[in-house]
Amino acid sequence: MTSPSRRGDVLALLCDREAVARLSEALRIAHGGTFLRRVERVAELRAALSAQRWDVVIVEARDADLVPTDAVLREIREAQPDSVAVGYARRRDLSSAILDFARAGVHELVIEGVDDGGIALRRALETAAKRATADRLVEQVGALVPRSFLPVVRHCLTHIGDVASVADLAHAFGVSRQALTERARRAGLPAPREIVAWCRLLLAARLLAGGGETVDAVAIQLHFPSANGLRNALRRYAGLTVEDIRRQGVAPVLTAFGDAVAAERATTVY
User: Fold this and answer.
1) Mind listing the pLDDT tens digit for each residue in 78-108?
2) Do 87 and 108 contact (CB within 8 A), yes or no?
3) 199-230: per-residue pLDDT in tens?
4) Which H helix or E strand runs over 130?
5) Which tens digits make up the pLDDT trace of 4-54?
């Protein structure tokens, strides 16, 4: 059985000591107090994963014995879905590593000498965390949203900062607002503006449930007008408070979203 992680813990399979030094320093700058556990082989990686849950796992394409790591990366995605999986590529191996990591489904790629500095690494990890959260939420709403509409939901969850209006969302898919609205209606879903609101609330619930984010910080990250704006949206759409989310996590928001979908389908004329 795995034990809980400390917030910010990073497990890294890195063969190059200079890479370890760069990442350790970058993590110290970007996330003070972060613990970096380094291993060199796939067997050591699996042992560390079985002993503890890790917030972030950074992995090279091959270990010190040249064993590919794509299989264990897929295992991480399945066994620890809340972990952020990041590929680390040396520039000399970049072309092959990109393919390996794409097949493994990493959340982000960090390139030696490009993304492994302080600010660049922080941005890469933030992007990876957003994609990991979106992937997890897409899995959870999969039973509520028809497969044909899941790409729209995924886009909302991954690019919430770029989706300020239904027009933005429609533009991302190369259709008109009316066409997107009709697509949602045929899928038995609430209007696109409601979908955007629900996606924002699902993301907020994930962040709040972790316990390490303040309401103000979550409101800023997800472009709510204020912390009170976030609280009001939770009450309006889900009938919940921030304290409810802290205690129960994302589940009650998912339930409320499911109720909204069911109500829409009950009144929709096809």
Assistant:
1) 777 778 888 888 877 777 788 888 888 888 8
2) yes
3) 999 999 988 886 678 899 899 888 899 999 99
4) helix 118-141
5) 444 458 888 988 787 788 777 777 765 665 677 889 999 999 998 888 888
Q: Are 14 and 23 in contact (CB under 8 A)?
A: yes
Single-letter code of the amino acid located at 40: E
**What architecture is the 142-267 domain classified under in CATH?**
Orthogonal Bundle (1.10)
**Residue spans in the chain of domains classed CATH 3.40.50.2300:** 10-128
Residues 114-127 have a mean pLDDT of 77
Cα distances from 39 to residues 10, 45, 88, 104, 190, in angstroms, run: 11, 6, 14, 19, 48
Q: Among the CATH numbers 3.30.70.260, 2.70.70.10, 3.40.50.2300, 3.10.129.10, which is that of 10-128?
A: 3.40.50.2300
- Tokens of residue 68, six digits: 């590919």
Query: What phi and psi values does residue 64 have, to the nearest 5 degrees?
Result: -65, -20
- Residues forming CATH 1.10.10.60 domain(s) in the chain: 142-267
Exposed / middle / buried, residue 57 (Cβ in 10 Å: 0-12, 13-18, 19+):
buried
